[in-house]
Amino acid sequence: MKKDKLIISKKNFSSRLIVGTGKYKSMQECAKAINLSGAEIVTVAVRRVNISDKKKPLLMDYIDPKKITYLPNTAGCFNSKEALRTLRLAREIGGWKLVKLEVLGDKKNLFPEMIETLKSTEVLTKEGFKVMVYCNDDPLMAKRLENAGACAIMPLAAPIGSGLGIINEINIRIIRKQTKLPLIIDAGLGQASDATIAMELGCDGVLVNTAIAKAKKPFQMALAFKNAVIAGRQSYLSGRIKKTLYGNPSSPKSGII
Amino acid sequence: MKKKIKIKLNGKLKAINNNSTLFNIVQKNKIPLTKVAIELNQEIVDKKKIKSINLKNNDKIEIVHFIGGG
Predict the structure, then answer these.
(1) Which residues of B have a CB under 8 Å from any CB of A?
(2) What is the pLDDT of residues A152-167, one digit of tens each?
(3) Is A54's Cβ below 8 Å from some Cβ in B?
């Protein structure tokens, strides 16, 4: 089998699992879970430095950005202006151009605000950013993001942190058929098998945070997701059998005594 | 006694010396420059030039870094 790599914006990755770094009990727990997951890309948020508590541990001291690709996100942004400001700052921290754009539209369901997302994608692409875009599972909007210059399409499986798994398999399949861009399921996965399903649908990767960080045993779940993504990818590449209504015996019919 | 000015640093009001530079603020707060980005009045600041940026009354400084997020 030739080397099967995830290629995002001309950069090769061996792992197809991207993990978020939020919601862990500690930086140590986060770093260990990432290590076990085998992820080579992690999402990170941009926030104010804690001026009053200078001893607060820094993410970069636990997860080395030279070894793991940081993917700055715009979590918590509810309009284009906030998202652009956040990513310009992220780029300033250390030259990050590969970013995850996420503009939310509703505080309760956390669905993406797609008009603002589209506007931001256009601006960021013009500014030289490589934009991986969190979006809803709408094939038409996915197409528009692609036309606007997105470098990866990242539709939700279900609301962020909901753990519901892929709700609209049909839409994900349609998006898969229409785009050659990396297609990464972002948000809403709850257990390892959800990741396998995503990969079997032909997605190029999955992004998981809460399902690992909030599992009773995050380390074990990190490993489970790692294996689930590999299994799903191999299954997809292997070409599944056709579904039939009736049985088809596995043993030969001839020579029966 | 030196004259003081008021600035906002990450949302918190601070009284600082009149002739302070942005570099003085970074130094005083032990900010690891390679791990942050700085905004002055919503404009991104070139970190190499902070020694020559004099602060004025009512300046708003934001210093951000990466934290865990999904």
Answers:
(1) 9-12, 29-32, 34-39, 42, 44, 47, 62-70
(2) 999 999 999 999 999 9
(3) yes
Are B65 and A210 an interchain contact pair (Cβ–Cβ within 8 Å)?
Answer: no
A169's enclosing H/E stretch is helix A169-178
List CB contacts (< 8 A) between B44 and chain A. Answer: 88-89, 92
In a domain, B23, yes or no: yes
For A16-237, CATH gives: 3.20.20.70
For chain A, domain boundaries? 16-237
Q: Report whether pLDDT(A253) > 90.
A: no
The set of catalytic residues of A is: 100
3-state secondary structure of A230: helix
Mean pLDDT of B9-31: 91
- Residue-number span of the structural domain to which B33 is assigned: 4-56
Measure CB to CB from residue A20 to each of B12, B64, B70 and give the nearest one. B70
0.95 surpassed by complex ipTM: no
